[in-house]
Specification:
The protein is mainly α and about 190 residues long. The chain contains 9 helices and no strands.
């Protein structure tokens, strides 16, 4: 989204800055609730979500931790979360409109969430489009002359099918991959 409009920005750098600022502004709103702090937080989160769609999951998660860590009333918390969501949605609206005109369907932010979901079902996980499991879905997409958004929806359906066919294997893979994040690699695997 956002990085296609300003191509010299690297998505990871911008995403890190916006997620950090979004978290800080949400924490600030949690410690001193007010409509302007919530609006500022929504503005920042809107940019973060435009940069990487899955950032949409972080805003309510961080807001929920603020609810648990403060004495904020439910009413104030819900009003602040609603304000954040409305402002973030307004920030994302032009990109969603662009996607509607381009693809003829509602794609709020990203057209690659389906392939990311599909890749997460692979064992081992690979990001190689030449991998036969990924290439076969792309071939099906080309055979059906699907656009980018419809191809992503096809990947999402295939991922869901893979998970439904073997939910225990998928859950095991999620746990194993999560634990792998905390394992230290062997010292000889570092390059200097």
């Amino acid at each position: 989204g956002l990085t296609s409009l300003v191509p010299f920005l690297m998505t990871e750098t911008l995403q890190t800055a916006l997620v950090t600022a979004g978290a800080a502004s949400t924490i600030s709103w949690g410690s001193r609730p007010g409509p302007w702090r919530a609006a500022l937080s929504g503005l920042i989160w809107g940019g973060a979500i435009l940069t990487k769609g899955p950032n949409a999951l972080l805003m309510p998660l961080i807001a929920a931790t603020q609810k648990m860590n403060t004495r904020m009333t439910w009413r104030k918390w819900l009003a602040g979360l609603a304000a954040m969501t409305v402002i973030a949605s307004l920030i994302m609206t032009p990109w969603g409109g662009r996607n509607w005109m381009l693809f003829g369907r509602f794609v709020p932010v990203s057209t690659n969430i389906g392939i990311q979901w599909y890749i997460s079902t692979l064992d081992p996980i690979t990001f190689d489009a030449a991998d036969s499991r990924i290439a076969s879905v792309y071939q099906e997409s080309r055979a059906k002359s699907l656009n980018e958004a419809d191809t992503d929806a096809l990947f999402f359906r295939r991922a869901t099918e893979r998970i439904m066919n073997s939910p225990n294997a998928f859950l095991k893979r999620v746990v194993d991959n999560s634990l792998e994040l905390f394992r230290r690699p062997p010292r000889d695997s570092f390059e200097y």
